[in-house]
Amino acid sequence: MIVEHLSLVDFRNYATADLALHRGPNVLVGRNGQGKTNLAEAVVFLATLGSHRVSSDAPMVREGQDFAVIRARLSHGERKVLVEVQLNKQGSNKARINGSPSKTNELPRYAHVVLFAPEDLQIVRGDPSARRRFVDQLLIQRTPRLSSVLADYDRVLKQRNALLKSARARGIKGEGLSTLDVWDDKLVSLGAEIISARQRLAIDLQQPVAEAYAAIAGEDHRPRLEWALSVRGADPEEPEAGAPVTAETSGDIAEMFHAALLAKRSNELERGLTLTGPHRDDLVLSVRGLPVKGYASHGESWSVALALRLASAELLRAESPAGDPVLILDDVFAELDADRRQRLAALTAGYEQVVVTAAVEEDIPDVLHAHVVRISAGTISDERLAADD
Fold first, then answer.
1. Which residues does the annotation say bind ATP (predicted)?
2. Residue 12 annotated as part of some ligand binding site
3. Per-residue pLDDT of the chain (389 residues; tens, 9 = 90+)
């Protein structure tokens, strides 16, 4: 897949913006704070329906405006697709595909993108929520319909938590809240599907991550991915987390989920909070048999983060009839030592389209240094087009 043209209206610092991109490497150069990452973020949103920088859409709308528009012309071989999304500060977002209204969760069917960014270090070193977000965004790219499942789970979870808080305020204890059973059934149905999909993804990522890690680090540190499931007693959101577990069938998960909810009902009523489910799980990453978080060096942590992104790209590349995903390397080379820069560049240069952003042009390895666009205070200057004129 190729992004041929990107157009923005009232997105971040851009009142309007137009960016032409080419097959192969594209380099966006500009000082920090000029808008390079905003362009990358816009492309990524079309593929994941989310941002790698913020958890809500409102910050992406330019100050003083009610909505922003991201529009992109995509090339899938000989086929051209125009995708568009309107991000609203209030209310649901709206999407159009080839000019016709569409559901927003249809966008990832057409836009396939993998982003590498400095924030990726938080995937391996940050809270469990960072790892869940990484996994869920990749799930949406692989299976777009899971966007609705994840959204429905969040909705049910909020409603169940509201009921628990109301019960706590009224002093209801134990089995005194029979209406909770209805929400339990909905939560389990959606949550079991999410847990199963996450576990399958971890299994599918295992070998590509191991291969990518060895290619980036130059060593085999036996990276592993395993889920710690709250329905099995592990709760990474609490100080004492349990051990990671391996994959079960969705039926097993549903049974465990129901049992865990029943076992924790009294505690949930006391706290006004749902204490088990995929919203409290964690993807445990390890190298050399030890958890990356707390044990891995800075270089090892970066190698794991980059391996996760490369493995994601390889999965999408292998599964998508649309060809390679677009790779976006957003200010990532400034974070890496010379060896990892060269290895990452060599591993990504062969993709159909690569977009690299950098504050210092010299940070970009020669193999990725091609079509250059300069960004300054929201102004886009295409050197190649200027030279052609």
1. 30-37
2. no
3. 999 999 999 999 999 999 999 999 999 999 988 899 999 999 999 999 988 888 889 999 999 999 999 999 999 888 999 999 999 999 999 999 999 999 998 999 999 999 999 999 999 999 999 999 999 999 998 998 999 999 999 999 999 999 999 988 887 765 656 788 899 999 999 999 999 999 999 999 999 999 999 999 988 899 999 999 999 987 777 755 444 444 455 568 999 999 999 999 889 989 999 999 999 999 999 999 999 998 999 999 999 999 999 999 999 999 887 789 999 999 999 989 999 999 999 999 999 999 999 999 999 999 998 889 999 888 888 765 444 44
Q: Do domains 1-112+323-389 and 118-319 have the same CATH topology?
A: no
Q: Is 38 among the annotated ligand-binding positions?
A: no
Residues pairing with 79 in the sheet: 76
Residue 303 dihedral angles phi and psi, to the nearest 5°: -65, -40
pTM of the entire predicted model: 0.87
Kindly report the number of other CB atoms within 10 A of residue 279's CB atom: 19
Please check if 159 is assigned to a binding site: no
118-319: CATH topology is: Glutathione S-transferase Yfyf (Class Pi); Chain A, domain 2 (1.20.1050)
Question: Cα(324)–Cα(304) distance, rounded to whole angstroms?
Answer: 22
How far, in Å, CA of 212 to CA of 307, rounded? 5
Q: Is 186 annotated as a binding residue?
A: no
Class of domain 1-112+323-389: alpha beta
Asked whether residue 36 is marked as a ligand-binding residue, the answer is yes
3-state SS assignment for residue 252: helix
- The answer to whether 34 is a known ligand-binding residue is yes
Residue 31 marked as a ligand binder:
yes
